[in-house]
Amino acid sequence: MTTTGPAELTLIQVSDTHLLPAGELMHGRVDTFALLETVAATVASSTGPVAGILLTGDLADDGSPASYRRLRQIIDPLAATFDAPVVYAMGNHDERLAFRAELLGGAAGAPADHPCDSVHLVDGLRLVALDSTTPGRHDGWLTDAQLAWLADVLATPAPRGTLLIVHHPPLPSPVPTVHLLRLAAAERLADVVAGTDVRMILSGHAHHAGAGALAGIPVWISPALAYDADPLPPDGRLRGLLGGGFSRIDLIDGQFVATAIPLSPTGLVYNNDRAEQVEFIRSLTPQTTPG
Description:
Blueprint: E1 9-14, H1 32-44, E2 52-56, H2 65-82, E3 86-89, H3 96-103, E4 118-122, E5 125-130, H4 144-154, E6 162-166, H5 176-180, H6 186-193, E7 198-203, E8 210-214, E9 217-221, E10 227-229, E11 237-252, E12 255-273, H7 274-284
Parallel strand pairs: 1-2, 2-3, 5-6, 6-7, 7-9
Antiparallel strand pairs: 1-11, 4-5, 8-9, 10-11, 11-12
């Protein structure tokens, strides 16, 4: 394939695919497998090369091995089309044992509770995936050991710098349920990445596109594939909208640029009372930090 645009390097980020075993629909109405097929067809027919494919958490809705195998049915041929590596990051709906076995080749000898962190080098660009999950919880947390490991990794700069991948956004959210389930104590991560070669932080989880900064480093929240969380719903409501999307991350003129690519919305996934839903999420979220 030939490059027709200005990008020196392009990555595809797909987040929150929420795949289920064959025959099951998310929320009883969303065929996430078909949506991922649409994304793969869109990317495969694009005009430029793809240097890497980033799957940034909540890849399975139920954490089952069958769901991860369905994911690979689509992602493996797409990656082969571009001869591109795939980077898998854990989300709160994922299950570490099945994730490690089905997507990471088993990672022999890793303890069941060991975070699925990884480092990849793509055309001089370092991609660091951090597992921000805690089994049994839906909010985000990075352990002291993970942050120390990250500091060691970042101590040596990469030729094109580093992109950091973490499922839970280290940012507040205008959606109250997402805000409750963001990365806790993000200032701990800020202390580690400040002054390093990290050029952008990529996340998902929120089910809405967003952007901000941590320690002066741009943070990109990719739209979810499965559906959109309405960031500006009618008063008193929390809504999930059919549709969703994915992202492309481009290196252009020495800068990294994130672009949301929407899928056409066609209706509602849910339409709940805001106060009731916030209280429900609060009941699932202990008010203490892990560890």
